[in-house]
Amino acid sequence: MAQTGVQILFAFLLTLPFTQRWDQVTDFQRALYLATLLVVAAASALLIGPVAYHRIMFRRGARARLVAAANTMALAGLAMLGAGINGAVLLVVDVLMGPLATVLICSATAAFFVALWWALPQLTRWELTAAHENAR
Length: 136
Hints:
This protein is mainly alpha-helical. The chain has four helices and no strands. The protein has helices at about 1-15, 25-55, 65-95, 100-135. The longest helix is centred in the last third of the chain and has 37 residues, at about 100-135.
């Protein structure tokens, strides 16, 4: 699911400079666009990376390394995807709304991603660790 989402976002970003209104973007929006495009490209590489790694390492007796590398790439890819989505939201809201709305909406979006993608799993890990230790 994340791979498909990042690919769609990347495709959307690739089309933006070729739209009629691109001449009207500010220097900030151009820089934000470039940064977001590069972050989403990195997310694509990281989320698709485990497939290439697995193909190359298949049947070489390195399952533990494969799983560890895939996990690291997936976590980094999700972080980049979150940053890329927030960058795209920032770019669109900056074009459509004023500065106050941009700050409020993008802060809420970033907080939502952090809550769902980091805080909730961390809370669950801590609860499971505590339950495991109490069971001893």
